Amino acid sequence: MGSAGEAYLFEAVRTPRGHGGEAGALAGVRPVELVGQLLHALGERGLDPTAVDDLVLGCVTQVGDQGANVAKIAALWAGWPEAVPGLTLTRFCASGLDAIGTAAARVIAGFDGLIVAGGVESMSRVPMLADRGAWWMDPEVAERTRYVHMALSADLIASLDGHGREALDAWALRSHVRARAAWAGGHFARSIVPVRGADGEVLLGQDERVKADLSVDALAAKPPVAATLASADPAGVEAGVRRIHARYPELGEGGLRHLHSRATAPAVVDGAALVVVGSLERGRALGLEPRARVVGYAAASVEPVIMLTATEPACRRALAQAGRRPGEVELFEINESFSATVLRTVRALEVDAERVNVHGGAIAMGHPLGASGAILVGTLLDALDERRSVQESGLGVATLCAGAGLGTAVAIERC
Fold this sequence. Notes:
Blueprint: E1 8-14, E2 18-19, H1 31-44, E3 54-58, H2 70-77, E4 87-89, H3 95-109, E5 114-122, H4 134-137, H5 139-144, H6 150-161, H7 165-184, E6 195-196, E7 202-204, H8 216-220, H9 225-232, H10 234-247, E8 269-278, H11 280-285, E9 292-301, H12 311-321, E10 331-334, H13 339-349, H14 362-365, H15 372-386, E11 395-402, E12 406-414
Parallel strand pairs: 3-4, 3-5, 10-11
Antiparallel strand pairs: 1-8, 1-9, 2-8, 5-8, 6-7, 9-12, 11-12
Helix pairs in contact: 1-2, 3-15, 6-13, 9-10
Organism: Plesiocystis pacifica SIR-1
InterPro entries: Thiolase (IPR002155), Thiolase-like (IPR016039), Thiolase_acyl_enz_int_AS (IPR020615), Thiolase_AS (IPR020610), Thiolase_C (IPR020617), Thiolase_CS (IPR020613), Thiolase_N (IPR020616)
Protein name: Acetyl-CoA acetyltransferase
């Protein structure tokens, strides 16, 4: 055990995000291999695995290839010392960010000196909802807990906030344009670790889903997600719409507008990401230089029908821990679960959208569930580093909404 103090972020790495499905570049790569290659990369960057107190990973669908404590098994797969434990946790889509927040809290408390934290999700090999949770599989539980498909919740937010289809499509196009520019400009170069096959060949070196030829007209032609859902699960959609109108009667007849398409939701992808979290003393003893200090970590929850708006209270709580306000934040990384959820967070926090997702987001590059929080933190670290000459606050916030009304935020300050 070390002394209580502060938690710092020393390094961040991630895989490129591969298209989810059999044709995806990473579909043949086990989740433990995705994590294992990142662990090897950290070793090549100077991390001594014998100094690591724990490996903490977020993973949402913990069955099949992702069952049986994937964190510990990934450490063994990578040949890390048997003395390194492993913890796999879930808070739905916020899992990877909670892994980092949990690691930081343990370091601040003095229980640990150095933890590798992050997340992994292979949506090709372990599809979303494959764990068959009672929340959506058990009709009585779904009714009592007011389960609604998240796409309907996103449409609810857009309807309540008065967004038209054009505004949602515009945010999606922005995500792709910025992601393309970031890749072309080398803004992800520091954190990206290409995924290799057994013979060493590169399977994927760049996010696979970013589109080069997307247009406003192409986006406008996409059908609403709700129509696809209604074809696949008419009873579930009907129940969700009923629960929405029961909770939000002010919508009135026809007030719920089905506005989101697959193009204004995040792509299904595979990927992993890791962040090295530790005390200043332990890091410097290992020759690691701090890049940022964790100044806030908070979870929040809202009512489960609207579901996707807890980013605002989570951000406010995390910033309050640092004695800061949203207007003082230099950069935000807000997970693009849907266009409307990001627009809601930007409006609720009253921040400049130009400070949000400066290199694109999950709509363009994909949302590998349990890994996304760690990806956001790594992107934030790199972007804050690039802006040292700007001489602003150096304060950054990463945040994600999650199922059942959950949300998490981590605030960091550039060193």
